[in-house]
Amino acid sequence: MRRSVCAGFFAWFLLLLSPAGAQEGKRPLRVATRVIPPFVIQNEGSGGQPAELTGFSVELWERIAQKMGVGFTWLPPKASVGELLGSVRAGEADIGVAAVSITAERVRDFDFSQPILEAGMQIMVRDQSPGASGLFSRLASVFSPSLLHLVGIALVLILVPAHVVWLFERRHPGGLIDVPGYRRGLAKALWWSAATLATQADEMPKSAAGRWVAVIWMFSSVVFVAYFTAQVTTSLTVEQLRSDIRSPDDLPGKRVATTAGSTAAAYLREHRCQVLEFNRIDQAYEALLDRKADAVVFDAPVLLYYAAHEGKGKVEVVGTAFQREGYGIVVPERSPYRKPIDAALLSMREDGDYQRIYDRWFGKE
Question: Cys-Cys with 112: which of 250, 325, 328, 335 at CB 3.0–4.6 Å?
Answer without folding.
Answer: 328
